[in-house]
Amino acid sequence: NAGVTQTPKFRVLKTGQSMTLLCAQDMNHEYMYWYRQDPGMGLRLIHYSVGEGTTAKGEVPDGYNVSRLKKQNFLLGLESAAPSQTSVYFCALGDRGLYNEQFFGPGTRLTVL
Amino acid sequence: GQNIDQPTEMTATEGAIVQINCTYQTSGFNGLFWYQQHAGEAPTFLSYNVLDGLEEKGRFSSFLSRSKGYSYLLLKELQMKDSASYLCAVNMDSNYQLIWGAGTKLIIKP
User: Fold this and answer.
1) Counting one residue from A and one from B, how many pairs have CB atoms under 8 Å apart?
2) How far is Cα B90 from Cα B100, in angstroms, rounded to an integer?
3) Pairwise CB contact (< 8 Å): A104 & B98
4) pLDDT tens-digit profile of A56-105?
5) How far apart are CA A72 and CA B73, in angstroms?
6) CA distance B14 to chain A (A)
């Protein structure tokens, strides 16, 4: 996970509160992804970005917003948190080309009460 | 729709060999990944197959049959540290997204 950091590592929110998760990289990757991981389910893509200033919706985008104003940072926002958003959130990096191996950050464990 | 199936859990003995299967049905295919994830940690890359056949990397090997929509991960000489979840993911053609299986939890017993 060298070069990929996620802030914060843990957070507890009350229903209706807002927060922003930060993913920062120093690996110069073009693509960045936000996933959530829930027990018994595969990683699910929330939003992704293929470059600075661009974002796109993934499989489960509702209730989340993202921004990529700088290449190094990808922010995930929850405007009004709900208990269903309790999950572990992973940021991942990728690159242009057919291979598209993804490198994961350490994760953020979020609990919404 | 997209679908990836893996067994939920498997148990094996230290020193033995185990095969973890993955079947997929996706609208596109540009390669298949295997990742390892220890409890409480992030997934880490193990292998990538884009052509049919076997790819060997130390104690780990991965096999792909595109015509059958099937892959397996073979782990030899199992060690206790191999206790982890193993995630299968398909690299979809024409977009930048991976489709992930739910993962197989592998339990190694002494």
Assistant:
1) 56
2) 7
3) no
4) 999 899 999 999 999 999 999 999 999 999 999 999 998 776 567 889 99
5) 34
6) 25
